[in-house]
Amino acid sequence: MKKSSNPVHLFFFRAILLIVIGCLVALVAAEEAHKINLQKSSSDAEKPGPILKDLILSHAYTVDVEKGELAPITYTLTVPARVRIIVCAPNDPDQLYRILIWDWQEAGPQTVMFDGRDQGGYPLDMSKCAFWLDAYNKGNYRPNTIELKPLTTQDLILGKQGPHDHNRCFEDKCKPSQIRFVGFQNVLPDPSDDIFPIKEDVVLSGVVNIKARVAKDARGYGDMTGYGVRWMVDQTLIGAEYYERESDGEFEFQLDTSAFPEGSHVLRVSCCDHYDHIGVYSVRVSFKEKR
């Protein structure tokens, strides 16, 4: 005959078993929570703080060029870094007006002076300008390790690969592109094959072809990726074009001077490869209608 279990004993056994299981679950949960907290703390500890902080550049927007004012742009670097500060069009850093600094700086307080002028020394309308700043930690400097990626259709349209770590560039590439005007050809009303130099206060009339070139030893990765080029009259964008690498750094744009008032203007051209190496050139010219 099978002996039956004591109900009281069975109740206490089940209760003790549930308590033990509950303790084990609590211990495991606590251990997992401890691990998660440790991982979060480690992750947070490894996150770098801001490289550039305490930025003040408000006076740079109100600098009086006619009075010869200089506006200080101040900031603090938490680590030694390669710093770049540019003046450009709002929402378009490739529509470039001035490179204020693109160089290594030590940690600590820094000041860069701005005189309200573009790369060629011509006054800027600061109401149409923005500042673009970036800084790259010198401790992460790993030159000559960049991996050039194939360009997508979107890259070609936008003229840029996207965010790029300048700490990985080949050092001879990580500098401003040296772009210059080569000259112009008259198209209308008196077409000519002659190329005339674009120099200070040269007179341009009718429709002209503007030619520019970027120096072979200062064109970033343009030979591999092509170039995005911005053409400007004063601070008005008149053309944004992509030139394939086969262009060999030679650019041309057709300008109708009759679309602008007669008189003095600043002609600008800026270029950028797909890895954010930029350059700009400007010269004052005069537009005059042929009569």
Uncertain stretches: 1-48
Number of strands: 14
Shape: flat
Gyration radius, rounded: 31 Å
Helix percent band: 10-25%
Averaging pLDDT over every residue, what do you get? 81
Q: For the record, give the distance between the C-alpha atoms at the N and C termini, rounded to a whole number.
A: 129 Å
Q: Which sequence of SSEs, written as H and E, runs from N to C?
A: HEEEEEEHEEEHEEEEE
Overview of this structure, please?
With 291 residues, this protein is α+β, with helices and mostly antiparallel strands. Among the domains are: 52-141, Immunoglobulin-like, CATH 2.60.40.4070; 179-287, Immunoglobulin-like. It is 17% helix and 39% strand. The protein has three helices and 14 strands. It has helices at 7-46, 153-158, 222-225; strands at 52-56, 71-77, 81-89, 92-105, 108-114, 130-137, 179-188, 202-204, 207-214, 227-233, 236-243, 250-256, 263-272, 278-287. Strands 8-14-13-10-11 form a five-stranded mixed sheet. A three-stranded antiparallel sheet has the order 1-2-5, with no helix packed on it. Mean pLDDT is 81; it is low at 1-48.
Helices and strands, with pairings:
Layout: H1 7-46, E1 52-56, E2 71-77, E3 81-89, E4 92-105, E5 108-114, E6 130-137, H2 153-158, E7 179-188, E8 202-204, E9 207-214, H3 222-225, E10 227-233, E11 236-243, E12 250-256, E13 263-272, E14 278-287
Parallel strand pairs: 8-14
Antiparallel strand pairs: 1-2, 2-5, 3-4, 3-6, 7-9, 9-12, 10-11, 10-13, 13-14
